[in-house]
Amino acid sequence: MALAEFIIDTKRFSIETLKQLTQTPHTLKLDSTVxxxxxxxxxxxxxxxxxxxxxxxxINTGFGALCDVKISNENIEQLQENLVMSHACGMGDEVKxxxxxxxxxxxxxxxxxxxxxxxxxxIQKLVEFYNADVIPxxxxxxxxxxxxxxxxxxxxxxPLLGMGEVRYKGERMKTADALKQANIKAIKLHSKEGLAxxxxxxxMSAWGSFSVMESERVExxxxxxxxxxxxxxxxxxxxxxxxxxxxxxxxGQMESAANVLKFLEGSEIAAQPKNNVQDPxxxxxxxxxxxxxxxxxxxxxxxxxREINAVTDNPLVFEDEDLIISGGNFHGEPLAxxxxxxGMAMSELASISERRTFQLTCGNRGLPPxxxxxSGLNSGYMIPQYTAASIVSMNxxxxxxxxxxxxxxxxxxxxxxxxxxNAAVKxxxxxxxxxKVLAIEFMCAMQALEFRSPLKSxxxxxxxxxxxxxxxxxxxxDRIIYNDIQNTVDFMRTIKL
Length: 497
What we know:
Blueprint: E1 4-8, H1 15-23, E2 26-30, H2 32-49, H3 76-87, E3 91-94, H4 97-112, H5 120-132, E4 134-136, E5 139-141, H6 150-157, E6 165-168, E7 171-174, H7 175-182, H8 193-198, H9 202-232, H10 242-248, H11 251-263, H12 268-271, H13 281-284, H14 286-307, E8 316-318, E9 323-325, H15 333-361, H16 382-398, H17 420-450, H18 459-468, H19 482-493
Parallel strand pairs: 1-2
Antiparallel strand pairs: 3-5, 4-6, 6-7, 8-9
Helix pairs in contact: 1-9, 3-6, 4-5, 4-9, 9-11, 9-14, 9-15, 9-17, 11-14, 14-15, 15-16, 15-17, 16-17, 17-19
């Protein structure tokens, strides 16, 4: 059966578009409007280069601190190949294949807007790689988040030349071997094309877009997990009343409170009179904390909605204005600040979750110490709380802003950088750490619910518990737990809210 075809045109798309594309098998196709605008700007660039006195950064000059070195016309194409090879200096862990593929998509989109001055054939070759699922091997470390994501994008671009490594059919291999298997021919770069491929924020944008999408999913799971914990701790539902949220008037707060009440609808435990007048902040202030995080996610999403539709290389070609202009659209400052903001917010989501786990395991509210019978003989869920606390502290360390840092590079030419790439990688790690913290709270809350029997939680929560117990059984006595935690993470990924 033929895959769905997604048309790349000059119109805007959104994070929601990316979400759909990551969830649905598809191929890409360039719209005729793309062919027209790209070809027009390319022809304009070639006319300008015909002038023997013309000097344009990175097109017929060196790069960075070498920008004043004039390159002869006969070496212009070699210059672009040299750029890609010399800048492929990434280190560290391999970028997740789905992020690398998203980098390809975002580079295709950016180049398709025409102002990069590349040949249409080069964009079509990127599309061919994307459709064949030939995914470049890219490394996490190496970009300063200004001058573009140079090292990561160099690794992304090497396979176009038949160099470097890729993943093809799930296997890591030399590019030459993959291209032979996929029946794809390498290309030769023309003037400016190496620079257009390497200049840009697609590494930051890809990581950031994935972090935003995952943050939205995790935020909903956090509301659900908090709701389960409210019943498990026999906490009050009054703090979630709409009147409290309305009088403060933060949209995210109102949404989180409404979610918790919806998840608890029909709960016998929630309906019982409570002896406690007030609950700890980690329960009582869920709407305020979760809601604040939700607001940050929405803000950061708006930043990336703009960035994924941007042209972020240098110099830029404007045929209609008869201009080729050097500028700084490659600078990642908007993304660096947004990613640091998201990382700090999401780390708070984990922090308050761990506090609820702590409260559930302390032997309060009629629950046995560490949620197990025969406490003492059995340690129960004592140490999972340690694990959650460890992850929370790791997140706090990762949440230290990258954007306040800078370092001079390229002989002083590039004297202020965003460190947005580091912010992007850190943020992504924070988001995935939160899954584990929430899973530990979820596991403990489900165990605590067992001690509220015969009273039941809401029909929704009880149905989730029924499915969950098929994966993670009731904790009767001490057993090895690490598999339970990972199985909980996997189970929570299947929950549709």
